[in-house]
UniProtKB/TrEMBL annotation:
Residues 1-28 form the signal peptide. It comes from Ficus carica. Keywords: Oxidoreductase, Secreted, Signal. GO terms for molecular function: oxidoreductase activity. Residues 436-537 form the Galactose oxidase-like Early set domain. GO terms for cellular component: extracellular space. This is Aldehyde oxidase GLOX. It is found in: Secreted. Residues 46-427 form the Glyoxal oxidase N-terminal domain. PANTHER family: LOW QUALITY PROTEIN: ALDEHYDE OXIDASE GLOX-LIKE (PTHR32208:SF21), SECRETED PROTEIN-RELATED (PTHR32208). SUPFAM superfamilies: E set domains, Galactose oxidase, central domain.
């Protein structure tokens, strides 16, 4: 190249270098960090739940052929109806020990494809439905210490009344579980079973369209004791005791929002007098993308937010920085919401999406419209169809799964994903470590409306209120965390207790309507920085 041509091109070359430097620098400056926890979990987790023993249950489906984790010797599954493996010695569920990152195989017998789940008040994971021989099956996993041998138990003395495939579970104030909807199941039923079995709820049939779009309905228990049920583009307030629709909410603009067009949904933190519940629904596929099997139709980027407990509520609309299908909304200990995983085009289903959305987004509910979303540091692993996200007791978020294929495929544009990652929000950054509280004392068991004290230590002197927030352990699957809940307790200003410790006087939730009975992660939050949680048992 002549000196003339070099000098002529120099401004362009400088521009390219500056752009590349700025691009990489901007990524480095975005909040949050990523780490790989496990290189090979053995399975791609379609359903994930965190237990009170700081272990994580990961669950795929059984008829998927060979996984990458063998069952214990002598524990093979035999199923003459399995089209892939009639004698199956591979694990399709595993248990992760968060203390050691070790994986232990678990044995599931019946098909759990697109099933549902919820923790019971005693900490047992209830798991319901699926496909084929799992259609009406009820299973339990009773967690144990990490060195124990707890495993799945398939119940033979009780079954679902209606088969449940793509259903949603929600624990109720009395500790029972309602199981809502499913493919061709426009009913609800309960565990333990009630005498009337499955009860018809016409709303589910009314919200179905010619590509379904009413599957895995978003179900939230409101603090008035009723259910907010969202399916397709509409929602109702449902009184399950009388089987009556108490309110029909206005339709949400932007097209369908549930499977197979699912975005995600969460109920924001309950606080104050607990009379107000705010629901947020974000993202989704454009109507028709599923029918057309379109992989490049842009996903929605809109979010609707509604105060579900108002007499005449309306949707407040806002836009995410990215369109997103199959995203997960994870309630953080602070009350902010992490939106993570998913794709920017296509729809749910096998090999039906493209353009993975690698950028997480932080939704800050207390900010005004237009300022609520913050783009975070991007990951590098595509987490698309059949991926999950769960809050961990240490405040990180665990990412697992992604298998957009009928079977495991590792040589594909978006391969089956066996790695488990964690995302650390900005509140865990080193420059905030001196704000991070440590819970030194908290009761292991709480009763409703009980007054109690929490003792924390903090490296820096505490200024202002230290929150004590209770987070549930939901069952995450298909872009929705079933049973997800954060309750901010009434607390007094911190009192100096000596030796760098502080006492916080708290009041437990008033009833099961606000916080159903069960195990919760109790976080102390100081200036937006959460402690490592302590598990507490909330009982009536």
């Amino acid at each position: 190249m002549s000196s003339f041509h070099f000098l002529h091109c120099l401004p362009f070359l400088i521009l390219v270098v500056v752009f590349q430097f700025t691009f990489h620098l901007s990524h480095a400056q975005l909040p949050g960090t990523w780490d790989t926890l496990v290189e090979n979990a053995g399975i791609a987790s379609m359903h994930t739940a965190v237990t009170r023993f700081d272990t994580v249950v990961l669950l795929d489906r059984t008829n998927i052929g060979p996984s990458r984790k063998l069952l214990r010797k002598g524990h093979c599954r035999s199923d003459r109806n399995d089209a892939v493996l009639k004698h199956d010695c591979y694990a399709h569920s595993v248990l992760l020990d968060l203390a050691t990152n070790q994986i232990r195989p678990l044995m599931i017998l019946t098909d759990t494809w697109c099933s549902s789940g919820q923790f019971l008040p005693d900490g047992t994971l209830l798991q319901t439905g699926g496909d084929l021989d799992g259609f009406k099956k009820i299973r339990k996993f009773e967690p144990c210490e990490p060195d124990g041998l707890c495993d799945w138990v398939e119940l033979d003395d009780v079954a679902l009344t209606d088969g449940r495939w793509y259903a949603t579970n929600q624990i109720l104030p009395d500790g029972s579980v309602i199981i809502v909807g499913g493919r061709a199941a426009n009913t609800v039923e309960y565990f333990p079973p009630r005498k009337h079995g499955a009860v018809s709820i016409p709303f589910l049939a009314e919200s179905e369209d010619n590509q379904m779009d009413n599957l895995y309905p978003y179900v939230h228990l409101l603090p008035n004791g009723h259910l907010f049920i969202f399916a397709n583009d509409r929602a109702v307030m449902y009184d399950y005791d009388s089987n009556k629709i108490l309110m029909k909410y206005p339709p949400l603009d932007g097209g369908p929002r549930n499977y197979p067009s699912a975005g995600s949904s969460t109920m924001l933190a309950l606080e104050g007098d607990y009379s107000t519940a705010v629901i947020v629904v974000c993202g989704g596929a454009q109507y028709g993308a599923f029918i057309a099997r379109s992989t490049d139709t842009p996903a929605h980027g809109s979010c609707g937010r509604i105060v579900a407990t108002l007499p005449d509520p309306v949707w407040e609309m806002e836009d995410m920085p990215f369109g997103r299908i199959m995203g997960d909304m994870v309630m953080l200990p602070t009350g902010d919401v992490l939106i993570i995983n998913g794709a920017q085009a296509g729809t749910q289903g096998f090999d039906l999406a493209s353009d993975p959305c690698l950028f997480p987004v932080l939704y800050r509910p207390d900010q005004p419209v237009g300022l609520r979303f913050m783009t975070l540091n991007p990951g590098t692993v595509a987490r698309m169809y059949h991926s999950t996200a769960n809050l961990l007791p240490d405040g990180r978020v665990l990412l697992a799964g992604s298998n957009p294929h009928v079977f495991y495929r590792f040589k594909a544009e978006f391969p089956t994903e066996l790695r488990i990652e964690v995302f650390s929000p900005e509140y865990l950054s080193p420059d905030r470590a001196n704000l991070r509280p440590v819970i030194e004392g908290i009761p292991e068991t709480l009763r409703y409306a009980e007054a109690f004290d929490v003792v924390v230590s903090v490296p820096l002197h505490v200024v202002g209120i230290v929150e004590v927030n209770l987070g549930s352990a939901p069952f995450a699957t298909h872009s929705f965390s079933q049973g997800q809940r954060l309750v901010k307790l009434a607390v007094t200003p911190t009192a100096v207790a000596g030796d760098g410790r502080y006492k916080i006087s708290c009041t437990a939730p008033p009833s099961g309507r606000v916080a159903p009975p069960g195990y919760y992660m109790a976080f102390a939050v100081n200036q937006g920085v959460p402690s490592v949680a302590r598990w507490i048992h909330l009982v009536s």
